[in-house]
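Many introductory courses stop at the sequence. We go one step further.
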Amino acid sequence: MLPRTLPISPLKITPATKYMSAPNKKPSPRKVLWIIAGLSIITGIFSSYALAQRIHNFNEDRDAPLFSYIDIQLETFEMFGHDFVIQETTIDDAPFLQIHWADEELLIPVAIPPRHELPTLFDRQVDWMSMMLMADRSGMSLKELESKVISGEVIPRLMIATRTPFGSEPTKEKHFDSIEHEEDWAWGESRRDLWRFNFYEMNQDGTITTHEPLRFPESGKSLQRRQNNAKLKGEPIPERSPGEIVEYTWQYGAALKVSPRAPAITFENQALRAAGWTLPTAAASILALIASVFFAIAPARVTEETA
């Protein structure tokens, strides 16, 4: 007679059945973060290289000259076979710089009178005047330029650059709530758009050339705002004002020698305009790398089970 119940042995779990019966495991969040960090590194390297290549190609295609400037702080010297003399003088109680070059004479009004008795003329007038030798060194290193100047292959130009606060007319109208007031020293140093730059060149033939006075270029944002306002009002689109210094010219570099602050950048001649997708991609990759590594190495969250 058979028993009502059959003895059933316990089920043996083999490695195969254990593998098949195990639940599907999801990758841990930390592994996902490290994967994101690795992908960010790869993307960042690729986009950064593409960005550098685009900027390099832009500069190669632009073919703009590269100028070098050497400060000269001598009140008397000889150059091109002519004597040069610069000295301070007063005419009708107004301060001037008096320059003698060969048989030529030049009077430059002092734009910013010195407030302290400093030892040399150039120390006293450093806020607004600079004298320099200038040469185009496109395709040359500084050592190559120096050797070519010594050999006479490259002839530098002797220049004097000056900066006059409030020397230019404003390009924009004042707002009704403008804080602008009288032409004092602090306001004059702040309003870069009202600075006027003059350039005087001592020529090899003993003459003095007075170049056209210029002003710093209007910033790209300011010009864009004026153009957008004109579009909204249906008015003609404004262009850049005449008499602005053009970037990558010798006047631009000479003006920087007498400026306490550089001008705001324009949008027309910037290498980043050629960046395209590479710039935002490189920036996003760096941000993703920082965020993923930060959370990947963060301490584990404390729960009731781990407390």
